[in-house]
Amino acid sequence: MHVLSQAFLDPLAKYGIPAINLHPALPGQFNGINAIARAYQAFVQGVITKTGLTVHYRTRGIAEVDAGKPLVVKDLTIQPGETLEQLEQRMHNLEWLAIVEAVHPAIKNLSMTGTTTVNFK
Fold it and tell me: Catalytic residue at 23?
């Protein structure tokens, strides 16, 4: 997991460019680091039967690292007998598809707001 600093995010916000984030958990579940492992542990304990991922707009503030309006949400059922490594691989496969799917509406929303070109000086 990589957390973008305010020094990186502030110039984007200054020019009205939203950042998006891919988080390997459903909205409101397992925010922060090790989300896949924590979901797997919850599955083993019988607490959940599925996990998923969220691609969302990044909110301001480091404390809100996995919050923001969702662009794409994908469910992923955890299979009985599946190992953590197998779940991680299936999650990564789903992530690769979801991030591509999320970029389209993010770019479309940029063009609707008039933020299509930025001159960083």
Answer: yes
Which DSSP state fits 64? G
Which alpha helices (H) appear in 3-83, and where do they start and end? 6-14, 35-44
By CB atoms closer than 10 A (0-12, 13-18, 19+), residue 28 is exposed
DSSP character for 50? E
At 52-85, the pLDDT tens digits run 999 998 876 555 667 778 999 999 999 999 999 9
Q: What is the pTM of this model?
A: 0.81
Catalytic one among 2, 23, 56, 92?
A: 23
Give the model confidence (pLDDT) of 27-43 as tens digits: 989 988 999 999 999 99
Give the three-state DSSP class for 79. Answer: coil
